[in-house]
Amino acid sequence: xxxxxxxxxxxxxxxxxxxxxxxxxxxxxxxxxxxxxxxxxxxxxxxxxxxxxxxxxxxxxxxxxxxxxxxxxxxxxxxxxxxxxxxxxxxxxxxxxxxxxxxxxxxxxxxxxxxxxxxxxxxxxxxxxxxxxxxxxxxxxxxxxxxxxxxxxxxx
Length: 156
Prior knowledge:
By secondary structure, the chain is of the alpha+beta class. It contains six helices and six strands.
């Protein structure tokens, strides 16, 4: 059985304590990790860092709970996630150009049906790995991802 709290555990740790095989990047507010089960050539997860007492594990356990809480704080978290995800998108596209000589789309969005006990913003290239997706029991990311402007607009 998968550990549904592993991402929350990462969000609570000092980024420097995470191995390079997990941690891609970190900022003062977020960490970006490699997806353990990538669904495309480039697949990263941006997680808000737990910052007690103002930003605790309970408020970050789902996007819905974050948005039900303090609106100003939720907006700050989402903006910080968006900024880091945009930087990851640029890193991904730079890597695409370096490796392949061109770049393609990178999608950024929240899972429509979250499966982990943590707020997660996904940055994934549109180079989906069909052999992986066919083995899933859920819809491909393209139909279950919601962009961060969409999700915030619904709750404002």
